[in-house]
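=== RUN LOG ===
request id: a7f3
mode: sequence -> structure
chains: 1
length: 287
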Amino acid sequence: MNRDFNTWLNSFRDNIADYAYYVDFEKVYRNTDTFKIELNILNSLIGSKDIEHDFLRLVDQYPQIIKCIPVLLAKRSNEIQVTDETGVHHYNFHKMNHTPKQYCLFMEKTGLFDLIGNHIINNLVDYVSGVEVGLDSNARKNRGGHLMENLVEQYIVKEGFVKGVSYFKEMTLSEIERKWHVDLSAISNNGKAEKRFDFVIKTDNQIYGIETNFYTSSGSKLNETARSYKTIALEAAGLDYFTFVWFTDGLGWKNAKRNLEETFDVLDTLFNIKDMENGVIRNLFIR
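=== RESULT ===
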């Protein structure tokens, strides 16, 4: 296949976020519901004229309310450490390890009493839902790591491949060897190294080991990935029953294109999203 690397690179995308990428609302609702009872009890403090007294009364009657305090500060942990002029204080919100008065001090000093008592918010359940949306944004990186994998799988399924029958997810070299009785020692350094592929497609005459990734920003990982996949490409070149395929994209490659080009030069089965849109999966995986 005669392709121009720079033309190919220039078709890379800056973003592949899908609709579910931005906020996992099911997770937001689930996490908020975890504290719904306690938050509704604390709602009685909204607009309190003597919030310290009212808080102490609530803690005495419903000590479980303290467990929802960390999320009011956008914290997942049950423990919070605070340092002040008197020293270091370790607060446990799963099981009280201080007097209720000390937890009052915590609420005052962190600004939570002001937030609740002065009508800055009207409902703590709604407030925590907003906090959870913010916390969930930190999980976008993890969701982003699966976006390219999900996209490639959509194209694989579109071409009629069936999961568990003609394509498989996250298979290792040793699993491939056992399932189809082939020798992949050239790739595994005679069994000393294990490699897991994102997908494996099996046709009548060929096994395809597939890797997928998308990089929005540059870094040393991109160069390491390109070098690693170049090695696999060279090791697999002598196997007539196994083909290594790599789907990658993202503007992060713009600053790491030298190593990517080296792999491009030795791996004919290196593709991007535009290649998939142009039917490369249909044409490559001939059954």
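=== NOTES ===
The chain has two domains: 5-19+141-284, 25-137.
The first helix runs from residue 5 to 9.
=== END ===
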